Amino acid sequence: MMTPTYYRPPAISINTTHKAPQAEFSAGKASSYLDLNFALISLKMSVSDRIGAPESHPRFHGVLAELTHLILRRCFNSVEQTALSVVTLWLLTYVLTTVYTRCTRISGVPGPFWAAYSRFWLLRAYASGCLWQIYHNTSLTYGPLTRIGPNQVLLSDPEESMRILAPRSKYERGPWYDAFRIEPNRPNIISQRHRSTHLRMRYQMAPGVHTLWFICHPLTNVTQYSGKDIANFENIMNVRVLDLTDHITADWTSTADSTVVFDLGRWIRHLTMDTITHISFGKPLGYVENGQDVMNFTGVVEQLLPVVLRFSLFTELKYVLQVLARIPCFRRKLFPHSTHSTGLGGIKITKDIINSRPPPEPRTKSDMLNSFLCHGISPTEVESEMVIALVAGSDTTSTGLRATILNIISNPPVYRKLQQEIDEAITRGLISSPIQDTEARRLPYLQACIYEGLRCHPPLVMPRERIAPPEGDTVCGYHLPGGTIVGLNVWTSQRTKVYGTDPEVFRPERWIEASDEQRRAMRKVWDLVFGYGTTKCLGENVALMTMNKVLPELFRRFDICTIDPQRPWHSECYGIFFQKGFNVRVSKREAFS
Ligand code: HEM
Question: Keywords, A to Z (predicted)?
């Protein structure tokens, strides 16, 4: 009964005309456009035909088959057509989902207009080299919760940040962390997003990182370091700090009538690399001794980080990388590999050392490498974990140190007070040479300078994204649907009212003048510099001990001033790194050297 309607001429003509001009269609552009036009007219006819006709099952299927046939023939009949169709389809889907997301998800959260439509706003911020400033300005303009992407918000409220990071929170690390994999198919401690696996890794690594003993905090059940079992570690630190000060004394000190320009930034980076490799492998790689970036590790990391950060925004690409990683030739080219003798091939040194050592006894207490192996981390996993430790442990600490030193030397009253405190402690025999960690922690102004330096300049300013739990959450009064990505803005959270009326200013006195209650409140917010909860930094004590030793040892021996007060350092910050130099003039202080 239906047959006559369905097989009417227009519908048939579509199929027949497909075949006839086929040769012309693929032969030239003009005929291709004509053909497309014709196809569109035919499609229109078929659809209106369908709408106008009474509904019936076979007819509907007929129209559907016809449409499918038409789409397949017209959109995928040549490579160019296929490419064009795929791009058009992708664009269409992208625009529709973006508009849908814009209108339905987190639409109430204020933020820059274009940020709501694409991740390019974020990409621009990452590429600018001053991510922290853009985040800070955005948070100041739009409030503690700001929309910075189609599905991304930025949080600068310290209380809410701590709630999200708390041990029992339902938030998990976001896809952003995938970009920090050393092995594309195997997450490391930083990129592990699965909560329970991450906790297992943390417990395995905690006793080993820096050979400190750890305790389980009774309230949070989070592994933390007490920093007491550090006889060996403190000796390593002493040797490394003296190595640096000896080199400065020998090669880099200026005299009354001559100036030696000295890039303190680079040398501090050398020091932190030597310290972390000494802790990790039982011997330093010799950065300070050779005065250069051994194995080009730092250079490669500095080149890679901007790429990694941009990549972290488009994590869909990780699937491509995961596939490429399975092909040996791409794998060797694209990823760090134990055959590489430089750069992130720092893996090679790990592998060589593992091979050269007998298997560690379960109770061997030597360096980080042995400790990881003793705690059941496989040699292959250890390779990536060591690279992560080298990156996480060296650059953050050197950034913290550089920022604190710069702030001190550019504030004459602070500089005078700090040097006075150190000099008095020496005169009264309160500190040894090199200074012990416990002695340094008893110098209140030094402690205030360290807290203030890290507060004003948190070394890790990347957003460290978390994903809202499936049931959603209310943050700063806004409802966030499940799956919303919440980035943490640590720069702004360290400039909140809890620090008083002048949080933008480097003023160590605020830590001394504060009442006990206020100091506790400040300390709680300050903790965010090292993270919070189950992902809190494993190396906080190491970083603080390094600062506690380097600052007094430098200021007791040398007078330091910047070479170019207008532009003391070239700060290109991609989250962690301050890549460029920090040129200074260093002269000896005879009285206390
Ligand atoms: C001033 C220096 C440092 C700062 C500001 C800092 C900051 C941080 C922060 C904020 C996190 C949390 C990341 C997250 O939320 O996912 C973190 C994690 C971590 N840090 Fe540090 N860090 C410093 C020094 C160090 C050092 C010296 C080491 C090791 C030698 C280290 C090793 C780690 C490791 C292994 C993690 C991962 C912890 C985990 O995922 O459970 N850090 N750090």
Answer: Heme, Iron, Metal-binding, Monooxygenase, Oxidoreductase
